[in-house]
TrEMBL record:
SMART domains noted in UniProt: PGAM
Alphabetical list of PROSITE patterns matching this protein: PG_MUTASE
GO MF assignments: phosphatase activity
Protein known as: Fructose-2,6-bisphosphatase
Gene Ontology CC: cytosol
Protein origin, superkingdom: Bacteria
InterPro entries reported in the protein's UniProt record: His_Pase_superF_clade-1 (IPR013078), His_PPase_superfam (IPR029033), PG/BPGM_mutase_AS (IPR001345), PGM_Phosphatase (IPR050275)
Active site (record annotation): 8 (tele-phosphohistidine intermediate), 82 (proton donor/acceptor)
SUPFAM superfamilies, per database record: Phosphoglycerate mutase-like
CDD domains reported in the protein's UniProt record: HP_PGM_like
Length: 197
């Protein structure tokens, strides 16, 4: 089984440099164009999907619909929701709270501020989801989600990363692929990016 994980396309909150979290903010036109660009890249490679999963938030669902070409229904799962930022949701990242700056400066050693979901929780629910998907039917599966949850999936699939993905930039509509064969996952690799092709 091939599993493709994508971050949703751009939203206006991305442009405003806000922590979107679980607010249901739609794609903007640029976000839709990014998703269409990824669909075109996958078309060129003959990649279509048997199963499509998404966070229930509209920006992820619409990204999944565009990238999958509407060929199969989108199945939503709450485990694919973005990290719960609690009281920090909507915060302007150009003027972050001091405790958020501390957290962002070293994700591995510094716990999330009070009221924010811990990264260990993100990785745990991401891992449970991806393990379940690996045992489902389908040769090619698309998973549409959010930046931090996507990093949680990548962390889970790369046990030796030691937290490297937490500080890695993952752009809107970046796509990673991993392979599930003989009861094991391959290390995920980036296979498409709406901006770079």
């Amino acid at each position: 089984m091939d599993i493709y994980v994508i971050r949703h396309g751009q939203t206006d909150a991305n442009l405003r440099h806000e922590l979107q979290g679980r607010r249901d903010i739609p794609l903007n036109e640029r976000g839709r164009e990014q998703a269409q660009r990824v669909r075109a890249l996958l078309d060129e490679r003959g990649i279509f999907f048997d199963r499509v999963y998404s966070s229930p938030l509209g920006r992820a669902v619409e990204t999944a619909q565009i990238v999958s070409g509407g060929s199969v229904p989108v199945e939503t799962d709450d485990r694919l929701l973005e990290m719960d930022y609690g009281p920090y949701e909507g915060m302007n990242l150009r003027k972050p709270a001091p405790e958020v700056v501390t957290f962002f400066s070293d994700f591995v050693r510094n716990p999330a501020p009070d009221g924010m979901e811990q990264l260990s929780s993100v990785t745990a629910r991401a891992g449970k989801f991806i393990e379940e998907v690996a045992r489902s039917s389908g040769e090619r599966v698309l998973v549409s989600t959010h930046a931090i949850l996507m990093k949680g999936i990548l962390e889970y699939l790369t046990p030796g990363s030691r937290g490297d993905y937490w500080s890695k930039f993952i752009g809107n509509c970046a796509v990673y692929q991993c392979v599930w064969r003989d009861g094991a996952f391959s290390v995920p690799v980036e296979v498409a990016d709406a901006e770079r092709g």
